[in-house]
Amino acid sequence: MYIAIPFLVKLCPAIQAKLVFLNFVRVPYFIDLKRPQDQGLNHTCNYYLQPEEDVTIGVWHTVPAALWKNARGKDQLWFEEALGSSHPVILYLHGNAGTRGGDHRVELYKVLSSLGYHVVTFDYRGWGDSIGSPSERGMTYDALHVFDWIKARSGDNPVYIWGHSLGTGVATNLVRRLCERETPPDALILESPFTNIREEARSHPFSVIYRYFPGFDWFFLDPITTSGIKFANDENVKYISCSLLILHAEDDPVVPFHLGKKLYNIAATSRSFRDYKVQFVPFHTDLGYRHKYIYRSPELPRGTLCSPQRGRYRGWLSTGVRALHLLAKQVLGREATEIWEHFLAHLCCELHALEELFAEQFLSFGSSSGSL
User: Where exactly are the transmembrane stretches of this chain (predicted)?
Assistant: First the structure.
């Protein structure tokens, strides 16, 4: 069997494509994606959009926690109009396996919502309850369609793109295309990114038992390319012109830390970023964030997307409240009531607004006094 599997993969490239996407793995099972409130997202609306004929994708839109009370019982039209409120928007592109309702993904939506963001996420064609066959081209087109849908409703509000794991490949494909048509996002965030799919497949835990097998590239990596799957982050960043933030945990067992660092080094020296901020934020092994728990950090990058000067005076209030929020969740456990959850999220969002006012006043003082 050990010898037969490489030949089977070589003869049937579709097998390798399935292993890259893992869209047939739906975890957690038995959740109703039409009901995000069942996952504790009571300020979230489920939509369905149609990027192409015969393709339908399921979308979740979570409003900022400050709008939680107003959002209760509202229909899709209200949520769409809410995108025009004075809050930034994050388009979140998830990784392989699971759905938009995955546990760690839901927790990230809650954190970003508590920090004052709209969060729009979706399942690519072939994932979750979305209809269609998965492909790199199709995933990128789905993301482009949702981005354009957001921009048509969000006015002048900032729109950021956040990709995780395989979603970083979709994200750089999308942002490269947006930059080429001169409509870049306000920033790009890559969480646990790789350089390209061949290097990631070679480093993936699944490949350990065959990594030193004679002809490994020919048997296992070439079929990925044959299937039209590249996710070339290392090439895409050379054509991206917007602020870039890379987040990576040192103990990531799925996408090795060195691939994220290598991608940062490529981006940092690219001429396309000469007028934009490029930042790499590592998370120490002791934190235990691994591949999908960076959302637990009390220092998520709300402040890092602003200018360097503003970033110096932001984060002190909301970081403390985020720590309080996480502590309360641990103490209260899963039995905590909705009211407490949303009270803490709302408090964090309100202090975020206070923090913004403080930053403005402090910077204004600094400018007038000549200290900055």
Answer: none
CB distance 44 to 109 below 8 Å: yes
What is the pTM assigned to this prediction? 0.81
Dihedral of CA 66/69/72/76: which sign? negative
- Among the ranges given (25-39, 246-260, 303-317, 328-342), the one the predictor scored with the smallest mean pLDDT: 303-317
pLDDT value at residue 106: 97
pLDDT of 302 > 80? The answer is no
pLDDT one-digit tens code per residue, 247-287:
999 999 999 999 999 999 999 999 999 999 999 999 999 99
Q: How many CB atoms lie within 10 A of CB 293?
A: 17
pLDDT above 80 (res 50): yes
List residues with catalytic annotation. Answer: 165, 252, 291
